[in-house]
Amino acid sequence: MAAWSAKKVGGCNRCGRCCRGCPAFDAKGMRCRIYAHRPEICKAFPPVPRDIVGVESCGYKFETEVRTGSQDT
Ligand code: SF4
Ligand code: SF4
Fold first, then answer.
1. 20 CA to centre of ligand 1 in angstroms
2. Position 2 confidence tier, pLDDT thresholds 50, 70, 90
3. Are 16 and 30 in contact (CB under 8 A)?
4. What is the separation of C-alpha 6 from the centre of its chain, rounded to a whole number of angstroms?
5. CA end-to-end span of the chain, whole Å?
6. Is the minimum distance from the CB of 22 to ligand 1 under 6 angstroms?
7. Where in the chain are the domains?
8. What does DSSP assign to residue 31?
9. Does the C-beta of 17 come closer than 6 Å to ligand 2?
């Protein structure tokens, strides 16, 4: 997991996708009601690429995905 965190780029654009279903998520205001005290897993999200597979709205990417399609070999 530590290796992946070094390859994570971008930032949270507050799309709220990863918070859906959480009782602390205010869907109307699109915010976390306990943001200052949110769990470590929330701070680390997404820890690995599979967590955002298919989540087009997420502002994070992993470097290996960014390079996909490049001419580097
Ligand atoms: S606690 Fe975590 S999952 Fe729940 S709304 Fe806050 S940041 Fe999102
Ligand atoms: S899916 Fe990504 S951009 Fe959207 S709220 Fe979660 S971490 Fe932020």
1. 8
2. confident
3. yes
4. 14
5. 25
6. yes
7. 2-67
8. E
9. yes
